[in-house]
Amino acid sequence: MTKLIKISLLLLLVAVSVGFTSCSHKVPEEPVNYIGSKKPSDSKAVGDIIFNDGSATPYSEITNEQKENAIAVIYYAGTSTDLLGKKTLGMTVNFSSIPVTSGGDCNYFNKMVESIFCSRNTSNTEALEWKSENPDMYGADNFQQIADWLDKEDLNDTGIPASNGNPSIKTPEEAAKLYPAYYKTKDMKSFIKADIEGTKFENGWYLPTYAELYPLEKNLPNCQEILRYFSSNSSTPSYLFTSTQSEGANKNCVVYVIAPGAGKTTFGSGETSNIGVYNTVFIREF
Question: How many CB atoms lie within 10 A of CB 273?
């Protein structure tokens, strides 16, 4: 019996020794080959181009091989004391003439939804001086706010329920024709040229407020050049739709101007008739 115990203990020691040895000599993991020079976990800076694997490279260093995988450019990397607070925002490198609304066909047309007001004092083109008492700085929930406002008048044709649970009087399929830009955020894989299907970058995009686009020209003065570089044509976007309204303008949206020397604000109805003049981009946090 004693001999059997000794043999058992010896076998146990051998097993433990083998296990320890195998754990001490792990096979090194294969390095991940990211598209960009910055890993997805690295902090991003203004001017970085984000790729569909989450990595990034400064625009000044991008190659033609990387170009087809680009999804966004970082234009705001703020601290808690900056205009939009501590966050990092990127804008799609692709743009398109997608109207905010279909115009008079939708119930939102020429309605004044106070909760999404964000009007600048246009007498001072350098400073951001709000005329609105509580300017709407965040655009991700603006479509929901439109639905809630219309619901009070039994006019909610947005295709989404109001926050109180009341259904829309239109189906999502019908509403997509009335609010094209808002519905495009639900199908970003058809907007962004790079392949984002199945990645987290399919979601999280929204139509920005005026305030969210305001840092664009100051932080990224070559924004037109960047958008043109990733465009399939030689056009240069000069006016970008926002989800913002302005009191007194009686228009669907404030349009942000990025044309050099053209000031910073204009007003547009956001409807189909303007698509040859105004363009749409979408933003998200990174």
Answer: 11
**Gyration radius of the chain's alpha carbons:** 26
pLDDT in tens, 66-121: 999 999 999 999 999 998 999 999 999 999 989 888 888 999 988 888 888 876 55
For residues 40 and 50, what is the distance between their CA atoms, to the nearest angstrom? 9
Read off the amino acid at residue 183: Y
Give the dihedral of Cα atoms 245, 158, 227, 189; nearest 10 deg: 160
Amino acid 257 reads V
The answer to whether the beta carbons of residues 184 and 202 sit under 8 Å apart is no
Cβ atoms of residues 263 and 127 within 8 Å: no
Residue length of the chain = 286
Distance CA 99, CA 91 (A): 17
Catalogue the long-range contacts made by 120-125 (C-beta closer than 8 Å, 24 or more residues apart): 120/210, 120/254, 120/264, 120/265, 122/263, 122/264, 122/265, 125/263, 125/264
Per residue in 202-219, pLDDT (tens digit) is 999 999 998 898 888 889
User: Distances from the Cα of 3 to the Cαs of 8, 9, 61, 129, in angstroms?
Assistant: 9, 10, 72, 91
Spatial CB neighbours of 23, under 8 Å, sequence gap ≥ 6: none
* Cβ-Cβ contacts under 8 Å for 193 (sequence gap 6 or more): 68, 94, 230, 232
- Rounded to whole angstroms, how far apart are CA atoms 53 and 92? 15
